């Protein structure tokens, strides 16, 4: 499920199920009768007190003190990009199924609930790697994130006219320089860069875009702001920079906005159809005021 191993399929050697020890696959009762239940209870209590050495934490919440932002760190085998994409695809599919049910409700004249909302989550933003929100930090994160997808134009930082120190001696730069010969076979993806800033005022949007774009071989990859093959997401919040490369359907999936995806069918309905389903209709008066008209008391 979204790359998360299902409990019971990890090959754990020991564990408990409903208070029964399954370490050796045997659930035979001990002879002695009366003490059996008490033994089971004691073993269950002992298992709760003893931390499992095989327990894995696939999600770890990290507090960033940024309003309206939840950050969860993942570990392999979870791929945050693949997970966010699949959740969004599933949400869109469910919305399309709901749209079919809505059409049937319209034909039969029944009112059905339409709007869905989420208590804690609105939009998913995958981050493959993160670092410091400085010019050098953004460049290092970009090198790590971009090389699996793009042929890079590796140049020392000082040759790009940047003020900070040259990073051509960094381990990432040196490793990518050696691998550059294998980049010739990479597909010539078109790309777009989409930066986002939260509580950060040091780096400017244009400079971040230019900095990341300068790392990509423009002779092999072209910019396409309308229908790109790959989209480079850059999230800068406070002093941290996160980055990932997502597929071009990020736009059609409403930028992984789950609320918009789940209510997608509402935007595709004519006003008269919405009135049949929800019992309300929105109209505009001569003065430009928007008015929502609902059912009368006798119709409720």
Automatic annotation (TrEMBL):
- Annotated region (Disordered) at 1-35
InterPro entries cross-referenced by the UniProt entry: THUMP_dom, THUMPD1-like
Extract the SUPFAM superfamilies matched here: THUMP domain-like
Listed A to Z, the keywords are:
RNA-binding, Transferase
Q: Which residues cross the membrane?
A: none
Give start and end of each THUMP domain. 103-247
> GO terms for molecular function, please?
RNA binding; transferase activity
Q: Which Pfam families match?
A: THUMP
Gene Ontology biological process terms in this record:
tRNA modification
Secretion signal span: none
**CDD domains attached to this UniProt entry:** THUMP_THUMPD1_like
SMART domains linked to this entry: THUMP (SM00981)
Q: What is this protein called?
A: tRNA acetyltransferase TAN1
What does the record give as the organism's lineage?
Answer: Eukaryota, Fungi, Dikarya, Ascomycota, Pezizomycotina
């Amino acid at each position: 499920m979204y790359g998360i191993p299902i409990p019971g399929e990890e090959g754990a050697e020991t564990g408990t199920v409903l208070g029964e020890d399954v370490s050796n696959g045997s659930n035979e009762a001990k002879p002695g009768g009366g003490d059996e239940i008490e033994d089971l209870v004691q073993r269950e209590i002992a298992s709760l007190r003893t931390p499992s050495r095989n327990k894995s934490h696939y999600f770890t919440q990290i507090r960033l003190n940024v309003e309206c932002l939840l950050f969860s760190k993942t570990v392999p085998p979870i791929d945050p990009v693949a997970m966010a994409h699949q959740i969004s695809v599933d949400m869109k599919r469910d919305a399309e199924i709901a749209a079919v049910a809505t059409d049937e409700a319209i034909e039969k004249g029944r009112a059905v609930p339409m709007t869905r909302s989420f208590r804690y989550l609105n939009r998913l933003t995958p981050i493959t790697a993160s670092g410091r929100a400085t010019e050098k930090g953004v460049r290092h994160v970009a090198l790590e994130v971009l090389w699996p997808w793009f042929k890079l134009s590796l140049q020392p930082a000082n040759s790009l006219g940047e003020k900070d120190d040259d990073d051509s001696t960094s381990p990432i730069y040196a490793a990518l320089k050696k691998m550059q010969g294998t980049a010739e076979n990479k597909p010539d993806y078109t790309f777009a860069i989409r930066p986002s800033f939260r509580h950060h005022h040091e780096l400017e949007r244009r400079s971040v875009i230019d900095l990341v774009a300068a790392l990509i071989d423009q002779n092999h990859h072209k910019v396409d702001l309308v229908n790109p093959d790959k989209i480079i997401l850059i999230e800068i919040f406070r002093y941290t920079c996160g980055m990932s490369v997502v597929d071009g359907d990020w736009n059609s999936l409403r930028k992984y906005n789950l609320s918009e995806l789940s209510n997608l069918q509402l935007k595709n309905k004519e006003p008269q159809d919405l009135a049949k389903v929800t019992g309300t209709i929105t109209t505009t008066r001569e003065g430009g005021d928007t008015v929502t008209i609902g059912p009368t008391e006798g119709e409720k």
